[in-house]
Specification:
The complex is a heterodimer of chains A (about 475) and B (about 110). Chain A is an alpha/beta fold. Chain A has helices spanning about 5-15, 20-35, 45-60, 105-110, 155-160, 175-185, 215-225, 270-285, 300-315, 335-345, 350-365, 370-390, 415-420, 425-430, 460-475; strands at about 40-45, 70-75, 115-120, 165-170, 185-190, 210-215, 255-260, 290-295, 395-400, 435-440, 450-455. In chain A, helix 8 links the parallel strand 7 and strand 8. In chain A, helix 2 packs antiparallel against helix 3, helix 5 (about 155-160) runs parallel beside helix 6 and helix 7 packs antiparallel against helix 15. Chain B has about 110 residues and is mainly alpha-helical. Chain B is built from four helices and two strands, in the order ααααββ. The longest helix of chain B is centred in the middle third of the chain and has 18 residues, at about 35-55. The radius of gyration of chain B is 23 Å and the shape is flat. Chain B starts with a helix and ends in a 9-residue tail after the last strand. Mean pLDDT of chain B is about 85; it is low at about 5-15. Classes of the chains: A alpha/beta (about 475), B mainly alpha (about 110). At the A-B interface, helix 9, helix 10, helix 11, helix 12 and helix 13 of A face helix 1, helix 2 and helix 3 of B.
Chain lengths: ~475, ~110
Amino acid sequence: MQDSAVALAKKLQSKEVSAKEVVQDLLPRLEKTNEEINAYVTLLPDEALKQAEEIDGKRARGEALGPWAGLPIGVKDLLCTEGVKTTCSSKMLENFVPPYDATVVRKIKDAGFIIMGKTNMDEFAMGSSSENSAFFTTKNPADHTRVPGGSSAGAAAASAAGIPVLNLGSDTGGSIRQPAAFCGCVGLKPTYGRVSRYGLIAFASSLDQIGPFAQTVEDCAMLMNVISGHDPMDGTSLSHPVPDYLKGLEGDLKGLKIGIPKEYFIEGLNAEVRGEVEKGIQTLESIGCETVEVSLPHTDYGIAVYYFVCTAEASSNLARYDGVVYGHRHMDATDIVDMAAKTRAEGFGDEVKRRIMLGTYVLSSGFYDAYYLKAQRVRRLIKQDFDQAFQKVDLIVTPTTPTTAFKFGDKTDDPLSMYLADVFTNSVNLAGIGGISIPCGNDSQGLPVGLQLIGPALGEEKLLKAAHHFQMAHGG
Amino acid sequence: MIGIVVGILEIWTRKMSVTRDEVQHIALLARLELTGEEVERYSEQLTAILDYSAKLNELDTSAVAPLFHAVPVENVFREDIPGNPLGVERSLQNTARRKEVFFEVPKVADGS
């Protein structure tokens, strides 16, 4: 493991290293590793060096700089970056250059972070393996024959490989936590509304949330300090004050009650994953946590609810790609309906089309009540499960995924089997609460296992503290 | 009313299959031109996904209100003060075809 971002920031602050030296040290490593794992859609080496020189200049002149100025970071390619292509790993947006920055991008720029590039993903964040990227797949740094997970595939792979350790991703049904588990890094999906979604290219607006990747929980806490908070540009962002998450890591876990939901330790759970997570739970107990069994009885319905809700919202959100204002356009259309239909046929990949079709179907006349409304009713039951559990416990612990990383091609013929890879993460998005995946040992093939901690709404402080102390005690 | 209930019950209980005609209809609503092979494949795959999801009907949700947003949200109002819009050029920078300060598209309606 290389320097954490927090440790590197101390060296930058004390002028032990310059930002330019940090970038010059990282770039050859980043480019070499990226050739092997294809984490990035767009690399920004010249811009990164220029930005580093500016920060060094400011520091030399004694100008005000934030504590994290000069730290390199990667950005998932669905967060708008002014003047830098933002593709969503889709042919539809292959040449899209946003005229503005997403709020999180503006925040990290203002704090002096250096953006190294834009990371690969499943097209429009729909997928669990990077195999839906219109450009190329990203390889799992732990085993190049296996998927890194998705949809934040490049972000997780880059963090795990340290190119660089900090990355921003997004999570709609597990797209931060599942790839973090597969690649062996830390990934946090914050409470819905904790981080502004302005400038995040929308997939499912009631589920999407931006969050950090890193190798340490401490680095995730640091990045949460930077990106959290209310934003007038996002009406769903929460106005609750942002605590100092780094400071919140201090202390110990004595008396913390952690629930173990029996519905997550079921037949489909791989035995080795189960074994590693059970060892992880013993570690939590050894550092003062009290564990009790809890029940989340509607867990088994999560996938069905998720795929109706997210596809319905996606079919509406993606209606904007009609070739008129931005994105790909079919140029030989006879009329505007023909232009939209051909533009979308050419610009979208198979999974995106399938989800638009399913979403349009469940919203269409005659099926709306039976599918869409039914799903939203069961969504309330899923949320109530969590509400009831959190009356008894502070946090919940589960495996992040039922298996370790699978091989490329294993699930591409069967969309439903791919959807089931998110069985332990979907419900957290449906309930709007937070979850974090932390490395928790390896299986016998050396593949990373992820342990997921789930917290109540706005429980990030507790979540990060428990995850931090777990990581310190459990290692890896 | 009874008719609607019976209709919903029929949809819930019959083994769902999405026919090729339904796929074509949905594709038109979604403005997606599909190949014959795609129509065939989506018909099978949507049917499989709906079959799997039929498990939702095990639950009686007649007394459960739908949850559209997990976090309570309300309308957000602000004063109507002019801000800093993108401006014409930046708004047009990503379009495939423009004419002067407009997005140019094929004819939308018949001239009659």
